[in-house]
Amino acid sequence: MGLVTARDGIASAIDSIGGLSVFDHVSDQVSETPAVVMRLSGPNYTDQTFTFSLLLITSGFEMSETEPGLHPYLDSVGSNSIKVALDTYAGCTVVSSTGIERRKFGGIEHLVAESKGGDLCCLM
């Protein structure tokens, strides 16, 4: 499996979660939230894997009100779980995610949780 096939498969798996927008590349602006933005962390040609970071993004000013809306996507079970969606895509492994923090995209502040490099690995 090549890079494009892996990227498209991950995007398709995440797209199966209702109400979640998926971007298969880093965009300057995220207008529809909640959303997942995919970023290639790097290929490993030795073991034939590609590692992606996923940014789970939502809008909101009050963290106490907005953060709980991300929890179903970060959960390890349930129909909105990103982990569950990716576990159904052969060859993907999700290990962990960061906490939720504020980050700017296109000059607009969003709440973001990131699965960092090495956490999402697609085996070839």
Question: Can you give a write-up of this model?
Answer:
The chain has helices at residues 3-15, 63-66, 71-74, 82-87; strands at residues 21-23, 35-44, 49-58, 92-94, 101-105, 108-123. With 124 residues, it is of the alpha+beta class. The protein has one domain (3-123): Alpha-Beta Plaits, CATH 3.30.70. The longest helix is centred in the N-terminal third of the chain and has 13 residues, at 3-15. The model has no long low-confidence stretch (mean pLDDT 79).
User: Helix content range of the residues, please?
Assistant: 10-25%
**Mean pLDDT over the residues:** 79
Tell me the quaternary state.
single chain
CATH architecture: 2-Layer Sandwich
Outline of the structure:
It contains four helices and six strands; from the N terminus they run αβββαααβββ. By secondary structure, the protein is α+β, with helices and mostly antiparallel strands. A hairpin with a 2-residue loop joins strand 5 (101-105) and strand 6.
